[in-house]
């Protein structure tokens, strides 16, 4: 991990760079895969699955028998944990349904919005280096609450051509049965264009590596909406002298083990905390089954001491972390001033893992600085708003002259006439 002691603000942008591949290289690979899928459909999907996932499939869709087997054989304790997490996520997200009342702009003019679900959505569930069955809950639960009619789920198969049973259990728990053995770029491409087997969708959701992120951005150019550019996972932890080095190290490692391209950042106003956290990271890393992956991510990670909490909040907002953990006696100072973050975890006993799994909030969040402009996934992500208005004859008499003056000033006389002809009607 790279260490910086009170670096100048001018150097922050350079220090806080994310580890990314050359954009042109990613786009070239994505364009090639998408092009072949558009022409060859299922045939291309099967070829890419053999090439990238190392398994030869006869059928892309998960059968009812496979789902039944997964439900039957999954560890009962894991089933119970998934069910409890689902209940918490359901409770938090159900509260996001808001019905807006019509607004009486003035006498005879009424405006309102209606919320409607996006009919066809695609969910991408990572399953390569780790089977993220928790993401099934995070995406399918708000999709169901929103009322999406068709939910398509794609997740990469293992070498035996199977999807992890916990992913299948979580999917059926949420009523999702349209499941395909597809990962990476080919999954996003299949949902973008549709093939003989896979449904074309209107919006694609889900995190993934840089290839998946690039594929989603490419899909958006092809007329399919995406939730956000959600790429490799990241966390920024701020702690003052009240922080616990062992807790901090555990949170850093929990993100580092996601993948070699993940990034973790520790910021402190107490320089001696850096030495303590380093020692804890080294100690805990050696006990992890995924220590090789975590170690690669740590090579891209950063430890920074800053002069004071004012500098700390400026640096946090500059970085715009996907996950922000605060261990500080002045937590209210940070809560009030944070403007760029995907999800915030407050206090020594609020690990980021809680949000990843079971506290109720969503873990599909903007990465790579996109928290400056994007929110995490919510029920709102699965709906759209349609505006309505109704104007009476009396209302148009009052508003009409305003419209006529503005339309004429913009030299759009047909716009003016659409009002004038009504005002002259006897």
Percent helix range? 40-55%
- Return the structural class: alpha/beta
The CATH level-2 architecture of the largest domain is identified as 3-Layer(aba) Sandwich
What is the count of helical runs? Answer: 17
Fraction in beta strands: 15-25%
How many domains make up the coordinates? 3
State the gist of this model.
The protein has 426 residues and is α/β, with parallel strands linked by helices. The chain contains 17 helices and 14 strands.
Describe this structure in words.
The protein is α/β, with parallel strands linked by helices and 426 residues long. It folds into three domains: 2-19 and 232-360, Rossmann fold, CATH 3.40.50; 23-226, 3-Layer(aba) Sandwich (Rossmann fold), CATH 3.40.50; 393-423, no CATH class. The chain contains 17 helices and 14 strands. α4 (64-73) packs across α7 and α5 packs across α7 (165-173). The longest helix is centred in the N-terminal third of the chain and has 19 residues, at 76-94.
Features of this protein?
426 residues, alpha/beta, Rossmann fold, 3 domains, six-stranded parallel sheet, five-stranded parallel sheet, 17 helices, 14 strands, globular
Topology readout:
Layout: E1 2-5, H1 12-15, H2 23-40, H3 42-53, H4 64-73, H5 76-94, E2 103-106, E3 109-117, E4 120-124, H6 133-146, E5 150-155, H7 165-173, E6 179-181, H8 184-193, E7 203-205, H9 210-221, E8 225-226, E9 234-239, H10 245-256, E10 263-268, H11 272-285, H12 291-298, E11 302-305, H13 309-319, E12 323-327, H14 331-337, E13 343-346, H15 352-357, E14 383-391, H16 393-409, H17 413-423
Parallel strand pairs: 1-11, 4-5, 4-7, 5-6, 7-8, 9-10, 9-12, 10-11, 12-13
Antiparallel strand pairs: 2-3, 3-14
């Amino acid at each position: 991990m790279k260490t910086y002691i009170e670096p100048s603000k001018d150097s922050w942008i350079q220090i806080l760079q994310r580890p990314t591949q050359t954009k042109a290289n990613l786009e070239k690979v994505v364009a090639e895969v998408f092009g072949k899928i558009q022409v060859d459909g299922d045939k291309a999907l099967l070829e890419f699955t053999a090439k990238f996932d190392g398994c030869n499939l006869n059928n892309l869709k998960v059968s009812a028998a496979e789902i039944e087997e997964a439900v039957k054989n999954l560890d009962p304790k894991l089933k119970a944990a998934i069910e409890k997490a689902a209940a918490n996520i359901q409770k938090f997200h159900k509260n996001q349904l808001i019905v807006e009342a019509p607004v009486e702009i003035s006498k005879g003019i009424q405006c309102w919005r209606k919320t409607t679900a996006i009919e066809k959505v695609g969910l991408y569930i990572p399953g390569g280096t780790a089977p993220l069955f928790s993401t099934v809950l995070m995406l399918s639960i708000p999709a169901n609450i929103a009322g999406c009619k068709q939910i398509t789920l794609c997740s990469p198969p293992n070498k035996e051509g199977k999807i992890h049973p916990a992913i299948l259990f979580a999917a059926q728990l949420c009523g999702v049965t349209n499941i395909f053995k597809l990962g990476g770029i080919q999954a996003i491409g299949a949902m973008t264009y549709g093939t003989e087997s896979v449904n074309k969708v209107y919006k694609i959701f889900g995190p993934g590596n840089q290839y998946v992120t690039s594929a989603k951005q490419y899909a958006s150019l092809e007329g399919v909406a995406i939730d956000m550019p959600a790429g490799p996972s990241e966390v920024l932890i701020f702690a003052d002298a009240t922080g616990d080095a062992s807790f901090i190290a555990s949170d850093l490692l929990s993100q580092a083990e996601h993948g070699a391209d993940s990034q973790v950042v520790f910021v402190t106003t107490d320089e001696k905390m850096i030495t303590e956290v380093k020692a804890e990271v080294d100690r805990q890393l050696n006990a992890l089954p995924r220590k090789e992956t975590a170690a690669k991510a740590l090579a891209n990670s950063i430890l920074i001491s800053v002069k004071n909490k004012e500098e700390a909040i400026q640096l946090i907002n500059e970085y715009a972390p996907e996950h922000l953990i605060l261990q500080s006696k002045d937590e209210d100072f940070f809560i009030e001033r944070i403007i760029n973050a995907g999800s915030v975890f407050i206090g020594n006993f609020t690990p980021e893992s809680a949000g990843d799994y079971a506290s109720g909030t969503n873990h599909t969040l903007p990465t790579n600085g996109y928290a400056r402009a994007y929110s995490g996934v919510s029920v709102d992500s699965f709906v759209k708003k349609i505006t309505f208005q109704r104007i009476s004859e009396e209302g148009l008499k009052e508003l009409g002259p305003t419209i006529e003056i503005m339309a004429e000033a913009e030299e759009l006389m047909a716009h003016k006439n659409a009002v004038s002809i009504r005002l002259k009607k006897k």
